[in-house]
Design goal:
about 210 residues, 5 helices, Rossmann fold, alpha/beta, 8-stranded mixed β-sheet
């Protein structure tokens, strides 16, 4: 299941809140997608979040994988945070498969998205992979009828502990040359930068809502 919400276009009108708000339970259902090139650390982010928060809430991390242990479809992790003006935000975290043969799947996962974390691979040799993934993501959003500039987006520059990584400025200019997008450095396998990235995208999404 990708989403049980009625199809909508984010931020086109404040009336869209009716489409993902369960008035009976006072729950606000929001979707955040971790996007990026293959093996950039998208799934690792969710695994770290699950270890720190999800398990304590009794949540499940649903993962579908190939034989090579790479995400085939999506990782899904629902989280609940504190109340917001009497409402209980329910944050649904997804990742997309990085392999090029699953482009159609990545578009499906982006449907009804409320916020995006773009996980870039800082290693040399992955420069154009990052750019291509960003270009593809924007193309998918356009095809879905969204204006990507209207969707909260946070950049995460992952694998900063490895030798020979690109500078933060180089990564920022390649992925956000004209937009002043928020960004975080991370070492996802160690949990560094994971929580900060998550907090920022949640804050941006809730601010827009």
């Amino acid at each position: 299941m990708i989403s049980s919400r009625t199809s909508r276009r984010p931020w086109t009108t404040c009336l869209v809140i009716d489409m993902y708000l369960n008035w009976k339970k006072r729950e606000l259902d929001l979707k955040i997608v971790y996007y990026g090139p293959p093996r950039s650390g998208k799934t690792t982010n969710l695994e770290q979040i699950y270890a720190k928060v999800g398990r304590k809430q009794g949540r499940r991390l649903v993962t579908l994988k190939t034989e090579g242990d790479r995400t085939l479809f999506f990782d899904f992790l629902p989280l609940e945070i504190g109340e917001l003006k009497g409402l209980k935000p329910r944050i649904n975290l997804y990742t997309v498969p990085g392999q090029s043969i699953y482009a159609a799947t990545r578009r499906i996962v982006l449907e009804e998205v409320d916020g995006i974390v773009f996980v870039a691979d800082s290693r040399r040799g992955r420069y154009y992979d990052n750019i291509q993934a960003m270009k593809e993501m924007k193309g998918h959003l356009r095809a879905l009828g969204y204006h990507w500039q209207d969707i909260p987006l946070v950049l995460q520059f992952n694998k900063r502990d490895l030798p020979g990584v690109y500078s933060v400025e180089t990564l920022r200019r390649s992925l956000s040359p004209t937009e002043n997008l928020p960004y975080y450095e991370s070492v996802a396998v160690q949990g560094i930068g994971v929580t900060a990235t998550l907090k920022r995208i949640i804050a941006l999404v809730l601010a827009r809502v």
